[in-house]
Amino acid sequence: MAESDDERLAAEQRARVLIDRQLVASGWAVQDRNALNLFVPQRGIAVREVIMKPGHGRVDYLLYVDKAVVGVIEAKPMGTPLSGVEWQSAMYATGLPEEVRRKTLNPEGRLPFVFEASGTEAHFTNGFDPAPRARRIFAFPRPETLAATVRAATENPDEAPTWRGKVRTLPSLDPAPLRPAQVDAINGIEQSLVEQRFGRSLVQMATGAGKTYTAVTEAYRLLKWGGFKRILFLVDRNNLADQTMGEFQNYRTPDDGRRFTELYNVTKLARGGMPDSTKVAISTIQRVFKAIKNEDVPEGDDQGLDEFRPDEPVTVSYNPELPPETFDLVIVDEAHRSIYGVWRGVLEYFDAHIVGLTATPGKQTFGFFQQNLVSEYTYPQSVADGVNVDFDIFRIKTEITANGSTIEAGTYVPTVDRSTREQKLIRLDTDLDYTPGQLDRAVTSKHQIRLVLETFRDRLFTEIFPGRHTVPKTLIFAKDDNHAEEIVQTVREVFGKGNDFAAKITYSAKDPKGHLKAFRTSPAMRIAVTVDMIATGTDVKPLECVMFMRDVRSGQY
């Protein structure tokens, strides 16, 4: 059934109500054309229903910044495909009446900023970009954001005023301090930036091949020569933020040898507005979500926040203190799976190019980056190049890990309250059958844990590391914190060693950062047990052996 004129008009009016609210939220004053007042406190004014020169109709919104006309907004009912109306907004951008044209930056040319909006969707074309192309944005830019672009264009007319233009003239990359795979990754990212390819670039690089160093090198180049104002660096877990901070602090610039942090301020993301001095903000996506919601962002390792994985996709709302144009680049380092599902709204909030760094991209990852794989360096390639060492797999199987088991009725078994660790003996009234998946979660078999660790001890110097006499630095992955507790105690008993030989490094452990430092540097600590705190990307150079006492879902193993 065809939509009537009244229904169409009502739909347009509803869209304009939403657009008005969005403009006001972004710092614009919204006025009727008959009540135009350029001397209001706001730097930006959106004027409704301005009549253009003959043949060009009536523009829905005419945008002023600092009393000069800079752009137009074409409003459409919700659900309208906006790409199909770009011709209309372009017509308005070149159809100014004479009395308005005198107030433009370029009276003879097209207005630089063109928007199409429906209240639920907005597209933006920046005329200062090379080959201007519409892109979807979360919210209208603040007036001061457009003013900064205009100022850059007028003060330096011979230079590109936006990063999309500046990246076309980046200096050649010095390959001397880089591996070939890192050079390929940087060149691939920059070519993708030049071509404005999908707004996203994916780098696949084997763990240990130097992804973070590659990202820091790219960040330096884009901040110094590429016109990028600010970069968000996302890490998978909060304890990796300190490690990443160290990478930036230790990075020596290739031109004058100064440290990155001597030139640019690098900090962790916090609540509130982003200081102009901050050039790189490091955060987990959970903390970014908190910041956008204007909630307190806790400092330090906060297990509850790092472990927060919502069941449904999160939704974000506009925050004037952290607007979408806050970052020009978002680097996603070692963040897999759910970041492109439930957290997708956080990534798409920012009007920024997104670079993903991962060793093992999955279908969701490729889908989010629209198959734009700009460089690929696999683990076998890194081994062949001598960047990484190869690995051998030693499997220890037990009957109950393969098939589960049964505890007969009438047996007295100890139970542990997971919150209080209080132990009680109970008598089973019926047989208790448990599956391998329930082992060390619903049911703990201390004998099975001991058997696995005794087998590891007995084969360590004959089959696993033949000829060795010192236990190699070993990291054991447990299923949960209680499982980790059992493993640590059993390791000490099986090897006949004291507390300094093995330690649990989880968020609930006392001084987890201190334990992690000791694991890296202490000759005495040989075995660490973790759940998730020591994850992909954590740098422990002396580590030689990784033991999984839980299921592994990686295609490499």
Note down, in words, how this protein is organized.
This protein has 557 residues and is α/β, with parallel strands linked by helices. The chain is 31% helix and 20% strand. The chain is built from 18 helices and 22 strands. The chain has helices at 5-25, 86-93, 98-101, 143-155, 163-166, 180-194, 211-224, 239-250, 260-263, 285-292, 303-306, 344-347, 363-368, 379-384, 399-403, 446-464, 481-495, 512-521; strands spanning 28-32, 44-51, 58-65, 68-75, 113-117, 122-126, 135-137, 200-205, 231-234, 265-268, 278-283, 329-333, 353-358, 373-377, 405-407, 412-416, 423-427, 432-434, 474-477, 502-504, 527-530, 545-548. The strands form 5 sheets. Strands 1-2-3-4-5-6-7 form a 7-stranded mixed β-sheet, with helices on both faces. Strands 10-11-9-12-13-8-14 form a 7-stranded parallel β-sheet. Strands 20-21-19-22 form a 4-stranded parallel β-sheet, with helices on both faces. A hairpin with a 6-residue loop joins strand 16 and strand 17 (423-427). Helix 6 (180-194) crosses helix 7 (211-224) and helix 16 (446-464) crosses helix 17. The longest helix has 21 residues, at 5-25. The chain is elongated and about 90 Å long. The two termini are 57 Å apart.
